[in-house]
Specification:
The chain is of the alpha/beta class. Helices cover 41% and strands 11% of the residues. Helix 2 crosses helix 3, helix 3 packs across helix 4 (76-84) and helix 6 (107-115) packs parallel to helix 10 (231-238).
């Protein structure tokens, strides 16, 4: 993996680099839980089913449409709302009807998050119910101040600047005293511009085993401060 001079691997993170941080902001899917868990594949498959049923397409064609909507609009939901005027609640309820037993409890991550000074938030393009169920399954529910979901963002997903502005304003966050953890580089562009520290969470061993190849672009971009393939270990290194 190539890195710019401004991008540091996990073992370069030091406690003093984060001593100013008072707000810790975590994406959910493929960040709080690791990509190799592959939980999101269930959601992904249900999105394909939703598109197939909506447009009366075979699954292989529906999947191409789904991925095209995702890439052009930021989320499949936003694309379907703009191009097909669907009911967002119906979509969210359908795609998040999944088996959360795929997630294993992570007490070490829970202890690390609990030990962080200040407030902790989940900031997700999914809905609150999905975030609550995932956090509960992992044993993390008690450690977060709030969940800022796609409904709270008025159905405008990351990486839209207005969504970050609403989140920061709602919770009175000083971006210069905050850090954001994300698995998509594009979703860290605005946080960096606002003054936040940025940590990109990538698949273990930096492999692109899961997901579309273009989702992993931008790992060595200048708006990424740190890269880690192990969130728990990263947090432990800065405590």
């Amino acid at each position: 993996m190539s890195m710019t001079a401004d991008t540091l691997p996990t073992d370069a993170a030091k406690p003093e680099d984060f001593s100013h941080v008072r707000d810790w902001i975590f994406d959910l899917d493929n960040t709080l839980y690791p990509r190799h868990t592959d939980l999101f594949s269930q959601i992904d498959q249900r999105m394909t089913t939703f598109v197939a049923d909506l447009l009366s397409l075979p699954r292989d064609e529906a999947r191409l449409v789904q991925k095209d909507l995702y890439r052009r609009h930021g989320t499949t939901l936003k694309g379907l709302m703009e191009e097909r005027d669907i009911d967002p609640d119906a979509f969210l309820n359908f795609v998040h009807d999944i088996d959360y037993s795929w997630l294993e409890p992570n007490p070490d991550l829970g202890l690390a998050i609990k030990a962080l000074p200040g407030r902790k938030f989940i900031f997700t393009n999914g809905d609150r119910g999905h975030a609550e169920r995932a956090a509960r399954q992992m044993g993390l529910s008690d450690h977060f101040e709030d969940i800022f979901d796609i409904v709270a963002s008025d159905l405008v997903p990351k990486p839209a600047a207005a969504t970050y502005d609403k989140f920061v304003g709602l919770h009175g966050i000083d971006p210069t005293k905050a850090v954001m953890f994300e698995d998509l580089s594009k979703n860290l562009t605005v946080p960096k511009a606002l003054g936040m520290k940025t940590v990109l969470i990538v698949p273990r061993n930096f492999e692109t085993t899961f997901g579309e190849y273009w989702e992993h672009e931008g790992r060595d971009a200048s708006h990424i401060d740190y890269v880690s393939d192990d969130l728990t270990r990263f947090l432990q290194s800065i405590l």
